[in-house]
Automatic annotation (TrEMBL):
This is Small ribosomal subunit protein uS17. InterPro entries: NA-bd_OB-fold (IPR012340), Ribosomal_uS17 (IPR000266), Ribosomal_uS17_bact/chlr (IPR019984), Ribosomal_uS17_CS (IPR019979). Gene3D superfamilies: Nucleic acid-binding proteins. Transmembrane segments: none annotated. It comes from Candidatus Magnetominusculus xianensis. It comes from the Bacteria. GO terms for cellular component: ribosome. Keywords: Ribonucleoprotein, Ribosomal protein, RNA-binding, rRNA-binding. The lineage of its organism: Bacteria, Pseudomonadati, Nitrospirota, Nitrospiria, Nitrospirales. Part of the 30S ribosomal subunit. Belongs to the universal ribosomal protein uS17 family.
């Protein structure tokens, strides 16, 4: 089974080697057909501490690294302002 890959924005970078990434997606309500924006907050492992708040990053699913961290930053797509 392939690993999930998401693109999101770094919202917090205060922890050592960990960033919080907000991943949002647009889904349609099954009954009312209204478009809903849903946001997930993922904790991702950033080995070199290069990601800063506001950066666009790509994260990939991995084995559990800690209690709440099971994602790894693959690359930093865009630098934040």
């Amino acid at each position: 089974m392939p690993k999930k890959v998401y693109t999101g924005t770094v919202t917090k970078d205060l922890m050592d080697k960990t960033v919080t990434v907000a991943v949002s997606e647009l889904t349609q309500h099954p009954l009312y057909k209204k478009t809903i924006k849903r946001t997930k907050k993922l904790k991702a492992h950033d080995e070199k501490n290069v990601c800063k708040k506001g950066d666009q990053v790509t994260v990939m699913e991995s084995r559990p690294i800690s209690k709440s961290k099971s994602w790894v930053v693959i690359k930093r797509t865009e630098q934040g302002a």
